[in-house]
């Protein structure tokens, strides 16, 4: 999608601090980190968000969840980390391209809202 921020990052039109890449997935550091480690993991194919996941494209979501522990290990998050995906305005989704936040590097509070 030409007007999607994360598609522009995938295309290399906007720079990112890349931590992982394969044919289907890109992971890069969040520009406004909420924890010492804050990484976004995204599918290269544009999916609008959780509501855009279908039987046809859900394989990449499973792949993302195989990649996340590899990234966590590489980042030294052996004491744990959180994976978050905001879906829609009430959840605070600001970029309409499916993404999973990896947050770690400190003890996280249990507040969900
Ligand atoms: P969300 O609010 O859940 O949609 O998450 C979007 C995330 O993208 C936010 O945490 C932003 O800080 C992050 N973000 C926005 N622009 C960039 C960028 N150019 N590079 C890295 N992260 C970004």
Summary keywords:
alpha+beta; 5 strands; 113 residues; 22% strand; 2 helices; binds adenosine monophosphate
Summarize, please:
With 113 residues, this protein is an alpha+beta fold. 20% of the residues lie in helices and 22% in strands.
List low-confidence stretches. none
* Percent of residues in helices: 10-25%
Enumerate the strands of the largest sheet in spatial order, edge to edge or round the barrel: 1-2-3-5-4
The total strand number stands at 5
Mean pLDDT: 96
The radius of gyration over CA amounts to: 14 Å
Which kinds of small molecule does this entry bind, naming each only once?
Answer: adenosine monophosphate
| SSE pattern, N- to C-terminal | HEEEHEE
N→C terminal distance: 30 Å
Number of DSSP helical runs: 2
Structural shape: globular
Structural class estimated from helices and strands: alpha+beta
Mind sketching the topology for me?
Elements: H1 5-11, E1 18-21, E2 25-29, E3 37-43, H2 59-74, E4 81-84, E5 100-104
Antiparallel strand pairs: 1-2, 2-3, 3-5, 4-5
The structure holds adenosine monophosphate.
Q: Can you tell me about this structure?
A:
This protein is an alpha+beta fold and 113 residues long. Helices cover 20% and strands 22% of the residues. Strands 1-2-3-5-4 form a 5-stranded antiparallel sheet, covered by helices on one side. A hairpin with a 3-residue loop joins β1 and β2. The termini are far apart. The model has no long low-confidence stretch (mean pLDDT 96). Bound molecules: adenosine monophosphate. The site of adenosine monophosphate has 13 residues, from loops.
């Amino acid at each position: 999608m030409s007007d999607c921020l994360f598609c522009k990052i995938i295309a290399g039109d906007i720079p990112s601090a890349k931590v992982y890449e394969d044919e289907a997935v890109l992971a890069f550091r969040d520009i406004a980190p909420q924890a010492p480690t804050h990484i976004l993991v995204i599918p290269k194919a544009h999916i609008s968000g959780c509501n855009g996941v279908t039987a046809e494209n859900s394989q990449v979501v499973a792949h993302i969840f195989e990649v996340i522990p590899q990234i966590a290990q590489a980042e030294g998050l052996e004491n744990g980390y959180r994976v978050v995906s905001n879906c829609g305005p009430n959840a605070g989704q600001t970029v309409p391209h499916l993404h999973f936040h990896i947050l770690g590097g400190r003890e996280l509070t249990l507040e969900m809202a």
